[in-house]
Amino acid sequence: MIDEEEETQEQIERKKKKALRPDRKIQVRVCDMEEGRKNEVIEFAQMGMDDHKFNKDIAAFVKRQCDEKYGGTWHCISGNHFGCNVTHDANTLVNFYIDKIAYLVFRSGPPEKSDEHRTT
Question: What is the four-CA torsion angle of 14, 66, 104, 97, rounded to 10 degrees?
Answer without folding.
Answer: -20
